[in-house]
Amino acid sequence: EGSNPSEAQMSGAEVIAQSLKTQDVNYMFGIVGIPVTEIALATQKLGIRYVGMRNEQAACYAASAVGYLTGRPGVCLVVSGPGLIHALGGMANANMNCWPLIVIGGSSERSQETMGAFQEFPQAVRSSIYGRPGACYVDIPADFVNLQVNVNSIKYMECCLPPPICMAETSAVYVAASLLRNAKQPLLIIGKGAAYAHAEHSIRKLVEQCKLPFLPTPMGKGVIPDNHPNCVGAARSRALQLADVIVLFGARLNWILHFGLPPRYQPDVKFIQVDICAEELGNNVRPAVALLGDINAVTQQELASQKSLPMNYYTVFYHVQEQLPRDCFVVSEGANTMDIGRTVLQNCLPRHRLDAGTFGTMGVGLGFAIAAAVVAKDRNPGQRVICVEGDSAFGFSGMEVETICRYNLPIVLLVVNNNGIYQGLDIDTWKDMLKSGDATTVAPPVCLLPHSHYEHVMTAFGGKGYFVQTPEELQKSLRQSLADMTKPSLINIMIEPQAMRKAQDFHWLTRSKI
Ligand code: ADP
Ligand code: MG
């Protein structure tokens, strides 16, 4: 008897252990007693780690932390009655923290006909990790644990997959992107939801690409390292108080964040709330934008829409900086172009930046670039000169492009074109405006002709000209221009006509220089 495989028996405890293993549950914490001792033994036998603790409360805290750290729920194993009651503290804590957890309690006997498939576990695992993560309780009657069942009668449910990734509504993402872009004092708050979501890479990209200051909550610390230059942890109160647009990445507006209310925040601060839990959206404060979805996915949506068109100064300089040769000369003039470019474009060598200077002179750029190129030719052939011009600034000495072409100087001219001085109008608004009167009476003095093809100034003299409107076109034309030392080039980069720089008042970003 027993040698016939079709009659092989298995205990309920072994079925439970195998079910857990099938669900990719790898850690169990608990205190054994009747009837759950058998479960602990069977579990350990299958290679699931079992840690015997001294109080169920600590066991439950441990199991919930494993869920946070690994994304698969840890198990807390307890006996019924006092064991379960002790575990309640851990379950409540897991729920409040939004951490997945499974508590298994052994209760008294019930008469059961057969065990069959153990349906509880896939359900428990699923509800602990899907939606907002939290605690789950599975009650196992004592007679289940010791029951002998025919192996063939058992069907294990397939391992519950990680939660499907959901993204936020596209239009809401777009609104959030433009709010963020136009913010004077933006701030990202990074919570433990972001940590749990493994959103570190995408959030870091957003922080760096858009030059955003961020503040971690206590357990959001480390998603981006605390020593990152954009971390405002050291000026927490001030950062909260001054922000006009705040993105909440997996952090609730509870007591930890002073409920999102004045006087800790501006009364009219706009919150962009990112959370996987719909019920959380609008809690305490009505958000300007609610982004329901997985933080990592939503951050990537935001990144994609930050790249959306038309580009702004930050998008342009981000892509330029990515390709800037370390030893190049950077010549720059313009208003926003020069100011924002200075903060984003890096110089590594002395005497390699030339700009409008003490006198704030417009029209110096091409002359300076020509000088740098001539000097570079003698000293360090192969060294590039990048001349970053606003469209207005370029106009002051644009004809020097002929000089550049005549001497065939390998200068890469970037014209950051917003159709105006400080800012301009898009072509449709411009055309509409002309209907209402003569340009001399209706055109704002800051406007230049929209959609001007400054790159033709370069092609007119035999250099290379590019007209770019997307980050991809910018990347490509810049790569080509930098690779080709035989010819000068001009890249006319169309940006949002109303694009502005962010407010100057980033005390916190400069604090490390004090
Ligand atoms: P903190 O204490 O760091 O401020 P909270 O616990 O208040 O963080 O907030 C965490 C939030 O993260 C919860 O509202 C939870 O619903 C949310 N969350 C958890 N996982 C995800 C995820 N993958 N995507 C989006 N939000 C998540
Ligand atoms: Mg301009």
Trace the largest sheet across and list its strands: 14-13-15-16-18-17
Anisotropy-based shape = elongated
Q: Which structural class do you get from the secondary structure elements?
A: alpha/beta
Strand content: 15-25%
Radius of gyration, Cα only, in angstroms?
Answer: 31 Å
- Could you describe the largest sheet, including whether it forms a barrel? 6 strands, parallel
Give start-end ranges of low-pLDDT stretches. 503-514
What's the pLDDT, averaged over the residues?
91
Determine the number of helices (DSSP H or I, runs of at least 4 residues): 21
Portion of residues within helices: 25-40%
| Strand elements, count | 18
Q: Care to give the gist of this entry?
A:
The protein has 21 helices and 18 strands.
Overview of the molecule:
The protein has 514 residues and is of the alpha/beta class. The protein is built from 21 helices and 18 strands. The protein has helices at 12-22, 37-45, 56-70, 82-97, 120-129, 142-146, 170-181, 192-196, 200-209, 236-242, 295-306, 313-323, 336-344, 365-379, 391-395, 400-406, 427-435, 439-442, 455-459, 471-483, 507-510; strands at 9-11, 27-30, 49-52, 74-79, 101-107, 135-141, 148-150, 186-190, 214-216, 245-249, 270-275, 289-292, 329-333, 353-355, 385-390, 411-417, 464-468, 489-494. It has a 6-stranded parallel sheet, sandwiched between helices. Strands 3-2-4-5-6 form a 5-stranded parallel sheet, sandwiched between helices. The chain starts with 8 loop residues before the first strand and ends with a helix. Bound molecules: adenosine-5'-diphosphate and magnesium ion. Magnesium ion binds at residues 390-392, 418, 420-421.
